[in-house]
Amino acid sequence: MIGSRPIAAKGITMTETTEHWFDPDATTFGDRIAGARERAGMSQSDLAKRLGVKLKTLKAWEDDLSEPRANKLSMMAGLLNVSLLWLLSGEGEGPDSPNTGELSQDISELLTEIRDIRTQLVYSTDRLARLEKTLRAKLREEAGE
């Protein structure tokens, strides 16, 4: 079943469908961040805190005044449970379509924990890559290269 209701996206009214509720042609990068954040049940403050950025930074991203660096973009995708491709272009895996029922507290808590673990994994992967790069440089240095 495809239902519809209006959604405001930066002054644009578009029709929401349960099949494709974010139109990649009508939404901006900031719209996608805000929409995915709302679908994840997070406030701007929550997401900013989890990303380790100031609230005004996140607001600037959502207002399309600036863009995050790659590491924050990757963390954001993990926290919001969307693909990087979807955040950047609106194509690929976005947030689940809106549904008519609310999730139970248990399920919401599990989803939040999964998002947190994904974010930690992204952060740890970035950290591991930096450490490996440093190790390679030190090994070359000791080998006299």
Describe this structure in words.
57% of the residues lie in helices and 6% in strands. It is mainly alpha-helical and 145 residues long. Strands 1-2 form a two-stranded antiparallel sheet. Strand 1 and strand 2 form a beta hairpin.
List keywords for this structure.
145 residues, mainly alpha, 434 Repressor (Amino-terminal Domain), two-stranded antiparallel ribbon, 6 helices, 2 strands, disordered N terminus
Topology at a glance:
Layout: E1 6-9, E2 12-15, H1 29-39, H2 44-51, H3 55-62, H4 70-80, H5 84-89, H6 105-143
Antiparallel strand pairs: 1-2
Helix pairs in contact: 2-3, 4-6
Shape verdict: globular
CATH architecture: Orthogonal Bundle
- Helix percent band: 55-70%
Instruction: Return the domain count.
Output: 1
Q: Which sequence of strands runs across the widest sheet?
A: 1-2
* CATH level 1 class label: Mainly Alpha
Cα end-to-end separation: 65 Å
Rounded average pLDDT? 77
For the CA atoms, what is the radius of gyration?
Answer: 18 Å
**Biggest sheet: strands, sense, closure?**
2 strands, antiparallel
Strand content: 5-15%
Judged by helices, strands and strand pairing, the structural class is mainly alpha
List unreliable stretches of 5+ residues: 1-21
Number of helices: 6
Helix/strand order, N-terminal first: EEHHHHHH
CATH topology: 434 Repressor (Amino-terminal Domain)
Oligomer: single chain
